[in-house]
Amino acid sequence: MFTKESNLFLMILLLISLGLIVVLLSGFATPLVLGAILATISYTPYKRLAEKLKGRKSLASLIVVIIIVLIIILPFFGVMTLLANEAFDLIRSIRIELGSDSPFATVTETLSKYLNIDARVFLENQILPNVNRLGTFISSQISQIISASGRLAIGFFLLVMTIFYLLRDGEQFATFLKRLSPLQKKDDALLFDIFRQTGKAVFVGNIISAIAQGLLGGLGFVIFGLPSPIFWGTVIAFISLIPLLGPYVISVPATILIFLTGKPFIALGFLLYNTLIVSTADNVIKPKLIGDKIKVHPLFILLAILGGLKMFGIIGIVYGPLVAAIFMSLVHTFEKNAERKKQQQLTEAKS
Fold first, then answer.
1. 237 and 83 in contact (C-beta within 8 Å)?
2. Same-domain pairing of 277 and 239
């Protein structure tokens, strides 16, 4: 049996070794965190696939990893590159349109009269510089990633391995963490369950719903022959996280602009598409994905994403919501624990 002094000594050694492990892995934090998130999100489909494959966990995990790489990871880099290019192209096209006798320039002059502002100056001084900064930011982030090709290859390998092993051995890992936890078994189970629900609400409920609206919004730009679909689809995805706003912030001004440029039928079709399909996607997707479980307010998610972008760069899109999920999990765990204690006190008082 350990004495008090030996326990203290072991604890000090444990903390030192933990610190060394953190230092060793700090350079690979991004692929490890991304892998853990993607494994958590895809765990339910993995379990169903493993059952259909008669318990062949390694094969099921490998299939899920391949699907994730093909439909999430590789397309992400492609979309980000196209987004940066479209941002710069949008600036050039707007400046060309403003300097000509195009319908866009006419609309700008009309808006200037009705709004009592110089819309041309507002575009040049306020909107275009911000679009340019966005394109430059995305382009620089992608360039940094691609330039470090060796590190990129190692990171990609770690990401894939993390997803594979967490899917295959996730249950054993969760059991190991519960054994290390100083909490009671019922509190451990509660915390894990709430974190799973909160993570699903944050990443699946809000972010995937916003991505779906962005994809549908960008598709609308393609269908109706409008420029910069990837750029505007990305903007719609971010705006979809803002309560009470959503895609209408983009679709309504775009509809008015299309109408004023002499295309009333395209304007009507674009408005109907956004009203019936894009704007209702959120109401269809969220209930199916998260049901009536824990819900996280979209404004909190938006602030977490913006804070993450400011602190960590483009990977903050993931880190911000992750921090939000951990925080909300702890809050809900304390809340549930307090409710349980109140119920126990009421039961004891009645008896």
1. no
2. yes
